[in-house]
């Protein structure tokens, strides 16, 4: 018997770990099958059982689940505190606090071996004859309170209730019956411990909306946020902080956060669970530790006192007031003393060693410099590593570093206020890039906290879903299945019939919008040919989105507008605006009176921008009024303009005569002229003095030394990118081993400039930078550093504005005809997107020329 139990435990643990890395099976169906558990059938539903002494979170989610069953079936289940005598029950509980679950375990009807010691794990299974008078129980057993909550809400998701049912008006497809397939066991647990988001940069959109709908950032607003976070399987929140103080604005905010099971924190520059606004309201004197130590210590002590009894992570350290650096030249010794004093406060208030209170130190901006210069904090403190505010991780742990008990985390951005330009208006986050950077974080063991700045929450619905899904199951997604995420997410919002097309719209939108933030876009971004091509791409996407919209049921159109059609429509219009301005200026410079028509077009598109915003604000009877009120046209530097401003256009007097050259100019090209003649094959041919190729279209890919080549689909500005796996591999010696080869054909000899286009990966390992090597026709490889100095503000600003790093090398072709370019990996995590060989004919462009003919 003992041997059997050991075997069962071993098998269960293996199953649990496997389930974490794979798809969860869909266990809910509308079709009855032998032995199935009837959740809803014949106008009746199973009863929901939550014991009276269960944590408040379980009572909260039981209410949500009851509402969800009613949304789907029209029938409202009852909620009871005992098993009673109902034919079927849904029993939810924590394994260590539920007498009913323990009763099932003792009777040998439920195994919880794989749950013990898990963080937020759950197991769902049907138990026959669980209690006297009960035929079947659908058991949702959690290793802790959030595990149980996630299990019950997973059932809601599988019934067809989207996490975005309220926040994006996603409709619920009605079903008359719901069954759980017999014999199915569902088990899951998260990969990353703390997973959440930061509401930030929330004015004017979210702040105006919340004031109108809720009276501000009060508990009524935050309960909607808490519910969303739980449904997305998150557990951690940094609250709104622009003029807001979560704990002080409404004293119910922290109380309800705890009841909802949400772990609260404060941002990277708000220490000791106190907000910047609290200091502005209640602080006295300077935000300066050397000058005002006693006052600051008392202020921080109050923060720890207020958070007693509530789950939270205390930010430690100190930055300047208002998210600014501390005074120039601040000594590392001072910051170390601040941290030591803060930890003493934590210990004194809690009566426990400081190590027993979760803490983080955010290595944000200049704080990373302190770390790089040798500053350290105690081992139990989580080091929260950061991106560059543009989605590129700055630093990751060394693979050979001694593990920290507090581990490492990542603070990431989908939204930002700062240089080189704010980006707050629309979602411009390509999830292929999000996956690639967070995959790096996971592989380099930054696994304790993942938190992302989402601005106003809307319109970040899609990338936020992906970020938290990846945080929950970091090993589930990879380059081979990443494209399926778009389709599956679309299906969960809009159903199967249109899921493939909607998924493709989301994929292309993510790629197109990430080329350049709309706040950075202007008439000079693209050359004339590129403007035509890019606008044609956007208009084709808009046409497809409008066709889907027409085919969807009326009940789904508000959600589709918010999640898909609005961002496509808004950016298609914005690109039309700037193309019209660019064409107007080009023609006006030549004295061509046709410029006037394009000035009028530009004014039309400028007005249309406001009308598209108005259309959003009128959705669902004005439910989302103000949510798209962020200014986005008329930037002159990093900070947003207070009002939109029409780009300047010029009018040419009608009597003016254009030069002959202008009379015959093709002002706009049609889409048919924008597609190069290509054929499947492996040799690229010179065209107009250059050769251009997408990196994924290699002639030969040679793996070696444990390295393999992986194409990461859709991550590039014009295609995909290719890189080596594993991302943790050591640097390679160029000239031997793994390589890519590209065959190309030229008609002349002489100097050639090779331009290589890379994703803007930063020098996260430190040292002397990420590297690659190239050679032509067997010459000695040239080793080139991608990014030795990420602190070069001018270079970095160009990389993130253009969303590309361009590197160049010079070579010489000694004969015409066929040649071979060899690309050698040196550093890991270098993503090659495109290669252009300039033989003297290359013209300036933003995206680089389209791929030349290959055969």
Give a verbal description of the structure.
The chain has 855 residues and is of the alpha/beta class. 34% of the residues lie in helices and 18% in strands. An eight-stranded parallel beta barrel has the order 11-12-13-14-15-16-17-18. Strands 5-4-6-8-7-10 form a six-stranded mixed beta sheet. Strand 4, helix 2 and strand 5 form a beta-alpha-beta unit. The chain is globular. The N terminus is likely disordered.
Helical proportion?
25-40%
Q: Low-confidence runs (pLDDT<50, min 5 residues)? A: 1-20, 660-664, 671-681
The oligomerization state is single chain
Overall number of strands? 30
Strand order of the largest sheet: 11-12-13-14-15-16-17-18
Summarize the structure.
With 855 residues, this protein is α/β, with parallel strands linked by helices. Helices cover 34% and strands 18% of the residues.
Summary keywords:
alpha/beta, 855 residues, 30 strands, six-stranded mixed β-sheet, eight-stranded parallel beta barrel, 34% helix, disordered N terminus, globular
What is the topological layout?
Layout: H1 2-21, E1 28-29, E2 37-41, E3 44-45, E4 47-49, H2 56-73, E5 79-80, E6 88-94, H3 99-106, E7 122-128, E8 136-142, H4 145-159, E9 178-180, E10 185-188, E11 194-199, H5 205-214, H6 219-231, E12 236-238, H7 246-249, H8 252-259, E13 263-265, H9 276-282, H10 289-306, E14 312-315, H11 332-350, E15 359-362, H12 366-372, E16 382-386, E17 408-413, H13 431-443, E18 449-455, H14 461-472, H15 482-494, H16 499-513, H17 528-551, H18 557-589, H19 595-617, H20 660-663, E19 683-685, E20 690-694, E21 700-702, E22 708-712, E23 721-725, E24 739-746, E25 750-758, E26 771-776, E27 782-785, H21 793-802, E28 805-813, E29 817-825, E30 832-838
Parallel strand pairs: 4-5, 4-6, 6-8, 11-12, 11-18, 12-13, 13-14, 14-15, 15-16, 16-17, 17-18, 19-24
Antiparallel strand pairs: 1-9, 2-3, 2-9, 7-8, 7-10, 20-30, 21-24, 22-23, 24-29, 25-28, 25-30, 26-27, 26-29
């Amino acid at each position: 018997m003992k041997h059997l139990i050991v075997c069962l435990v071993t098998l269960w643990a293996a199953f649990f770990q496997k389930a974490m890395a794979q798809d969860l099976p869909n266990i809910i169906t509308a079709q009855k099958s032998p032995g199935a558990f009837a959740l809803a059938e014949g106008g009746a539903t199973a009863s929901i059982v939550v014991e009276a002494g269960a944590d408040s979170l379980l009572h909260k989610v039981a209410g949500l689940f009851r509402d969800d069953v009613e949304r789907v079936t029209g029938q409202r289940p009852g909620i009871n505190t005992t098993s009673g005598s109902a034919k079927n029950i849904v029993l939810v509980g924590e394994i260590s606090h539920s007498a009913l679950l323990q009763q099932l375990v003792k009777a040998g009807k439920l195994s919880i071996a794989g749950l013990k010691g898990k963080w937020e794990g759950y197991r769902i299974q049907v138990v026959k004859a669980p209690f006297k008078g009960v035929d079947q129980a659908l058991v949702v057993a959690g290793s802790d309170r959030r595990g149980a909550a996630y299990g019950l809400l997973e059932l809601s998701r599988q019934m067809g209730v989207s996490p975005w049912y309220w926040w994006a008006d996603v409709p619920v497809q009605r079903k008359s019956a719901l069954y759980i397939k017999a014999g199915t066991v569902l088990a899951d647990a998260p990969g990353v411990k703390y997973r959440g988001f930061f509401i930030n940069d929330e004015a004017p959109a979210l702040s105006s909306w919340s004031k109108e709908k809720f009276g501000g950032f009060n508990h009524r607003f935050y309960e909607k946020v808490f519910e969303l976070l739980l449904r997305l399987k998150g557990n951690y929140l940094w609250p709104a902080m622009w003029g807001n103080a979560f704990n002080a604005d409404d004293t119910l905010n922290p109380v309800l956060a705890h009841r909802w099971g949400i772990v609260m924190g404060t941002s990277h520059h708000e220490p000791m669970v106190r907000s910047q606004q609290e200091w502005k309201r209640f602080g006295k004197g300077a935000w300066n530790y050397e000058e005002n130590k006693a006052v600051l210590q008392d202020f921080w002590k109050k923060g720890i006192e207020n958070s007693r009894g509530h789950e939270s992570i205390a930010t430690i350290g100190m930055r300047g007031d208002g998210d600014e650096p501390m005074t120039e030249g601040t000594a590392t010794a001072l910051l170390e003393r601040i941290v030591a004093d803060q930890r003493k406060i934590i210990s004194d208030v809690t009566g426990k060693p400081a190590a027993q209170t979760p803490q983080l130190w955010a290595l944000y901006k200049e704080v990373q410099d302190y770390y790089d210069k040798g500053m350290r904090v105690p081992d139990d403190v989580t080091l929260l590593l950061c991106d560059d505010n543009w989605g590129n991780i700055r630093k990751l742990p060394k693979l050979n570093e001694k593990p920290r008990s507090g581990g490492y985390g990542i603070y990431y951005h989908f939204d930002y206020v700062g240089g080189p330009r704010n980006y707050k208006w629309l979602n411009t986050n390509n999830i292929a890039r999000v996956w690639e950077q967070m995959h790096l974080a996971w592989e380099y063991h930054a696994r304790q906290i993942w938190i992302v700045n989402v601005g106003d929450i809307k319109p970040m619905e899609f990338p936020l879903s992906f970020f938290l899904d990846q945080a929950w199951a970091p090993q589930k997604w990879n380059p081979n299945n990443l494209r399926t995420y778009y389709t599956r997410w679309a299906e969960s919002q809009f159903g199967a019939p249109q899921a493939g097309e909607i998924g493709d719209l989301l994929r292309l939108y993510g790629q197109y919008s990430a080329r350049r933030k709309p706040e950075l876009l202007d008439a000079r971004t693209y050359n004339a040919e590129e403007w035509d091509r890019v606008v044609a791409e956007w208009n084709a996407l808009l046409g497809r989105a409008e066709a889907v919209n027409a085919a969807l049921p009326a009940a789904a159109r508000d959600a589709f507008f918010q999640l898909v059609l609005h961002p496509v429509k808004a950016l298609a219009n914005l690109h039309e605006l700037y193309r019209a301005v660019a064409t107007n200026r080009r023609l006006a410079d030549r004295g061509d009176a046709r410029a006037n028509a394009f000035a009028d077009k530009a004014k039309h598109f400028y007005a249309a921008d406001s009308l598209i915003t108005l259309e959003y604000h009128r959705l669902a009877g004005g439910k989302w009024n103000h949510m798209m009120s962020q200014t986005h046209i008329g930037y002159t530097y990093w900070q947003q303009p207070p009002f939109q401003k029409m780009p300047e256009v010029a009018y040419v007097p009608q009597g003016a005569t254009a030069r002959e050259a202008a009379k015959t100019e093709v002002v706009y090209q049609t889409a048919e002229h924008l597609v190069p003649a290509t054929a499947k094959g492996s040799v690229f041919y010179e065209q107009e003095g250059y050769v251009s190729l997408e990196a994924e279209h290699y002639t030969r890919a040679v793996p070696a030394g444990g390295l393999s080549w992986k194409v990461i689909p859709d991550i590039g500005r014009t295609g995909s990118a290719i890189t080596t796996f594993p991302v943790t591999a050591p640097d390679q010696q160029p000239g031997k081993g793994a390589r890519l080869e590209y065959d190309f054909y030229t008609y002349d000899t002489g100097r050639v400039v090779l331009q290589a286009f890379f994703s803007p990966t930063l020098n996260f390992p430190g040292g002397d930078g990420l590297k690659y090597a190239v050679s032509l026709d067997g010459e000695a490889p040239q080793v080139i550093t991608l990014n030795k100095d990420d602190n070069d503000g001018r270079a970095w600003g160009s990389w993130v504005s253009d969303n590309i790093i361009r590197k160049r090398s010079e070579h010489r072709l000694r004969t015409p005809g066929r040649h071979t370019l060899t690309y050698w990996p040196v550093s890991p995590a270098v993503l090659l997107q495109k290669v252009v060989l300039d033989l003297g004919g290359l013209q300036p462009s933003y995206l680089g020329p389209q791929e030349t003919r290959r055969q």
